[in-house]
UniProtKB/TrEMBL annotation:
Domain Surface antigen: 110-160
Lineage of the species this protein comes from: Bacteria, Pseudomonadati, Pseudomonadota, Alphaproteobacteria, Hyphomicrobiales
Protein name: Surface antigen domain-containing protein
Signal peptide: 1-18
Pfam families per UniProt: 17kDa_Anti_2
Keyword entries, A-Z: Signal
């Protein structure tokens, strides 16, 4: 029994090390700057611009050009109102957080990819600049592309440890 105690301590220590994860950085995403400021609060959904553009396109288009007008209105609405693309929750969000932690340790310019097959979600995060903030934390500016079930988006931000 005496010989088991040191072995148990070693086993617990090794298992604690094996389960350690990199520290999670504090992430601030930059919101896209819309071309036109619409005085409607869509609570961050980004639906007002594309929805309004698609509605406008549906009133302009007719006949064979109807679908093209709706799609053009939708795209113009995204450009006018701005959008970061799809939001993440559940398993895709946890995979993105893991990738964001890795971004703090890779070389500047080296992309970190993440994906989940079941949710059809993927993304690439690339650190583009590193510096120290006023609080002395190591920060990295990054760009990110993400896709969730064929909805794509690009965003940028800063991660600090």
């Amino acid at each position: 029994m005496r010989g088991a105690a040191p072995l148990l301590c070693v086993a617990l220590t090794l298992s604690a090390c094996a389960q350690s994860t990199p520290p999670q950085p504090q992430v601030t995403e930059k919101q896209p700057e819309p071309l036109i400021h619409i005085p409607v609060d869509d609570r961050g959904s980004g639906i007002v611009g594309p929805g309004g553009g698609a509605l406008l396109g549906s009133t302009i288009g007719a006949g064979h050009g109807f679908q093209a007008a709706v799609v053009a209105g939708l795209l113009i609405g995204y450009a006018v109102h701005g959008s970061n693309g799809p939001t993440l929750s559940g398993f895709p969000a946890s995979e993105q957080r893991r990738a964001m932690a890795k971004v703090m340790s890779v070389e500047i310019g080296q992309p970190v990819r993440w994906w989940t097959a079941t949710e059809q979600a993927s993304g690439t995060i690339t650190p583009i600049n590193e510096y120290r903030d006023k609080e002395g934390r190591r920060c990295r500016d990054f760009t990110e592309t993400r896709s969730v079930r064929a909805t794509h988006g690009q965003l940028s931000g800063t991660a600090c440890l």
